[in-house]
TrEMBL record, chains A, B:
Tagged with keyword Kinase: yes
Alphabetized UniProt keyword annotations: Kinase, Nucleotide-binding, Pyruvate, Serine/threonine-protein kinase, Transferase
NCBIfam families according to UniProt: PRK05339.1
Assigned protein family: Belongs to the pyruvate, phosphate/water dikinase regulatory protein family. PDRP subfamily.
Pfam entry (one): Kinase-PPPase
SUPFAM superfamilies per record: P-loop containing nucleoside triphosphate hydrolases (SSF52540)
Positions with a binding annotation for ADP: 155-162
Function of the molecule: Bifunctional serine/threonine kinase and phosphorylase involved in the regulation of the pyruvate, phosphate dikinase (PPDK) by catalyzing its phosphorylation/dephosphorylation.
Species the sequence originates in: Enterococcus alcedinis
EC number: 2.7.11.32, 2.7.4.27
Protein name listed in UniProt: Putative pyruvate, phosphate dikinase regulatory protein
GO molecular function: ADP binding; ATP binding; phosphotransferase activity, phosphate group as acceptor; protein serine/threonine kinase activity
């Protein structure tokens, strides 16, 4: 019985009047709870007319899909509800409950402007600057970036410095990173900045060894090079740990952490806020 | 009455056993519907024990917060529900409805492993590669990247090429980009690739003019430089449009689009899937 069920593919339809990021993340979080099931996600984004919505719903019905939607127009929400009730389709309205709670508390109507999440306000410039900053000061390219950065990431090879920098840049933070290798010169700027801005990334030697071996294989190279020798990795990590202690920075072991999880820990540890959409500080430059 | 309400700050508490990305996006989407209201978001992430959860809930109560949570442990969900009911706090369980629907359909229990969204699987490597690729082939640094890329973005200055490349890299796509300036040499590799992989970015001249002026001001420079002169902008855009026509690529005007919206359009137009968490294609290299 269970065997049969596992073999069928379950379908999510993400329907949104905007880019569908919220409902997509929810579909992915749900899918991750069932690694043994095959899923597919269809996205129907920028749905702002009744015709487009009905087309998406008919399509969803043909897949017997589970519908997750974020639609702000009440008439369209009603269309979706009625269609799904009549067709016996699972549907989950993600956006309405919190929007109505704010209305209940304040007596203020929502703007009901689709995609209001994505206005091109001053955050837009801040974010573009943060991303350009991350690209410019990636990989220790220019240590002068440390002085300007909100966060400086240090780490041996394969501790996710670049992806982490870019992920944090997406949250409007200026991030510079520096690879730590025993032989390398440590730029003097590192000692000039507040250690509370520095994060030392480390990893378990065995995991690092496996990651590096896989990397070598994926590059079509011999996995047993010095780069992946465990003794060398241990001495690299020791060198890094010693440096982190001298600097007095926080240290995060990324061994079992995803980029999202590490980023979230950095935000918490450094007391930084995710300003990806809203800036509450009026003193922003 | 309304005036008074606007002045108070409304608080969201995002409580998650993982990084809290889904509920954060939902809080932001809700906040965007009420531009006249002051909001704050508090994140309580990696909450996996009853003690930590109760601490977060007590804190939320002291802020009279609206609680959005994604918690997979049923006992913890029950604790949150009971606490919020007893305290009269608004709470919205974002994750349970779709998880239970999958269980209903398949008879399979969810793994109930917190943060299951973020497993370090082969996507991890694909994503790291995609991000490194975006940094390496940003800004036309090396046109050989075009041949390897999933998407090649072309655009005049300030059409969000770098942020877009990084955003798409986060969805595991290899993206290269090239700034289009009338005087510049167009690399021959551009004519060797499938035009279906190329996206030409354009913008409204007036908006571009304003963006560039603001950029000059933010850099402490005179806003009325050649860089922001409208005639020059128009001729740049004409040059770009001509090139796009010759290439036969799709063209997107980013004038009123956010990065998320443009990225979503590119995914749709190029028939690409968001593989940020799951790869369904078994033939992946």
């Amino acid at each position: 019985m269970t065997e049969t069920n596992v073999k069928e593919t379950l379908t999510f339809f993400v329907i949104s009047d905007s880019a569908g990021e919220t409902a997509s993340k929810l579909a992915q979080a749900t899918m991750a709870q069932y690694p043994m099931i095959n899923f597919e996600i269809f996205r129907r984004t920028f749905i702002t007319t009744k015709d487009a919505l009905i087309k998406a719903l008919v399509d969803a019905k043909s897949h017997n899909a589970m519908i997750l939607h974020t639609i702000i127009n009440q008439e369209l929400v009603q269309v979706a509800d009625d269609f799904c009730e009549a067709s016996g389709l699972f549907h989950f309205d993600v956006l309405t409950p919190p929007v109505l709670e704010v209305q209940r508390r304040t007596g203020i109507e929502p703007t009901r402007e689709p995609g209001a999440l994505h206005h091109l306000n001053k955050n837009y410039f801040k974010r573009i600057k943060a991303m350009e900053f991350a690209v410019k000061y990636d990989d220790g390219k220019d240590p002068r970036g440390f002085l300007e950065a909100d966060v400086v990431l240090l780490g041996v090879s394969r501790t996710s410095k670049t992806p982490l920098s870019l992920f944090l840049a997406n949250k409007n933070l200026k991030v510079a990173n520096l690879p730590i290798v025993p032989q390398a010169h440590i730029p003097k700027q590192l000692w000039e900045i507040d250690p509370k801005k520095i994060v030392g990334l480390t990893n378990d030697p065995k995991i690092l060894n496996n990651i590096r071996k896989e990397r070598m294989i994926s590059y079509g190279l011999n996995p047993d090079t010095a780069y992946s020798q465990i003794d060398k990795i241990i001495s690299e990590l020791e060198f890094a740990t010693e440096l982190y202690n001298k600097l007095g920075c926080i240290v995060i072991n990324v061994a079992r952490l995803s980029i999202e999880e590490t980023a979230s820990m950095i935000l918490n540890a450094l007391n930084l806020e995710d300003h990806s959409y809203f800036i509450t500080d009026d003193n922003e430059d």
